[in-house]
Design brief:
Keywords: 4Fe-4S, Iron, Iron-sulfur, Lyase, Metal-binding, Pyruvate, S-adenosyl-L-methionine. This is Pyruvate formate lyase activating enzyme. Its cofactor is [4Fe-4S] cluster. GO terms for molecular function: 4 iron, 4 sulfur cluster binding; lyase activity; metal ion binding. By secondary structure, the chain is an alpha/beta fold. Helix content is 28%, strand content 22%. The protein has a single domain, classed as TIM Barrel. A hairpin with an 8-residue loop joins strand 1 and strand 2. Helix 3 runs parallel beside helix 4.
Length: 232
C-alpha cells in the first residue's frame, strides 16, 4: 500500500471545507462496482508518491485549503497513514478519512488520539452480503466494531451507501439501517457505471430518482438525517 495520487482541491469531498485529496492504493475489498479500480492492487499501475512530496505539496496549499481527504483504495491499510496525518495536523489542517470500516483498530487509534476530524464510512450492502464483494473472507465483526466506534465517538461522521442495483435494494437498506440505527447522517449515493472494477456493470442502469427517494424514505426511519447525492 502506498500513496498513489494527489488532487489539488475539492469542494465536495469534505463537507463545508475546501480540501485536497490524497489517494492510497490497496484495498481489502474488491467490490465489482468500485469506482477507483486502478487503486485496488498493491502494485497498482501508478507511481508511488514519496511522503515528503505529498507533505510539501500540502504545505504549499495550506493557506487556501481547510483540510485533507484521505481516500483510496483503503487508507487504513497504509503504514505511513499516521505519520502523514500528524504532519497534516501540524500544518493546522483538518483530516477527513474515507474508509470501508474493516480495520477497526486503526480507526480506534485515530479517534483516541484525535487524528481525524471527519470520518466517512462506506457501507457497501447488507452485512450478510459482504461475501459477494471480495475473493476472500470479510470480517463482519470488524465492520460492526467500527460502526460502534463511530456511533459512540465525538467526531463528525457520515455513513455512506452507493445504491447499486442488484447490490442495494429495500431489504439491504433495512439491514444496513439496523446496523447503524441512531446515526446522525446516512448518505445514499447514485451509482455511476462509467468506471467500475467489473466491466460488465458498464451497461447497468442506475436507479431512477423516484427509486432513490423511496430508498431514502425507508432509510430515514433508522437515522436522524438522510442525504441524497449524485442526482442529476
Amino acid at each position: 500500500m502506498a500513496i498513489k495520487g494527489f488532487q489539488g482541491t475539492s469542494l465536495l469531498d469534505f463537507p463545508g471545507k475546501i480540501a485536497s485529496l490524497v489517494f492510497f492504493s490497496g484495498c481489502n475489498l474488491t467490490c465489482p462496482f468500485c469506482h477507483n479500480p486502478s487503486l485496488l492492487a498493491e502494485d497498482a499501475d501508478l507511481p508511488d508518491l514519496p511522503l515528503e512530496l505529498v507533505v510539501d505539496e500540502l504545505a504549499e496549499r495550506q493557506d487556501f485549503i481547510d483540510g485533507v481527504v484521505l481516500t483510496g483504495g483503503e487508507p487504513t491499510l497504509a503504514p505511513e497513514l499516521d505519520v502523514l496525518v500528524r504532519q497534516i495536523h501540524d500544518m493546522g489542517l483538518q483530516v477527513k478519512l474515507d474508509t470501508n470500516g474493516l480495520a477497526p483498530r486503526v480507526v480506534e487509534r485515530m479517534l483516541r488520539e484525535n487524528l481525524v476530524d471527519y470520518v466517512a464510512l462506506d457501507l457497501k450492502t447488507a452485512p450478510r452480503r459482504y461475501g459477494e464483494l471480495h475473493r476472500g473472507p470479510v470480517s463482519m465483526a470488524a465492520l460492526q466494531r467500527t460502526v460502534g466506534l463511530l456511533l459512540a465517538a465525538d467526531v463528525d461522521c457520515e455513513f455512506r451507501t452507493t445504491c447499486v442495483p442488484g447490490f442495494v435494494d429495500v431489504g439491504d437498506i433495512r439491514q444496513i439501517g439496523e446496523l447503524i440505527r441512531g446515526a446522525g447522517l446516512w448518505v445514499l449515493q447514485q451509482f455511476s457505471p462509467q468506471v467500475t472494477l467489473d466491466p460488465g456493470l458498464a451497461d447497468l442502469e442506475p436507479y431512477s430518482e423516484e427509486k432513490l427517494r423511496e430508498l431514502a424514505s425507508l432509510a430515514a426511519g433508522y437515522v436522524e438525517r438522510v442525504e441524497l447525492r449524485g442526482l442529476r
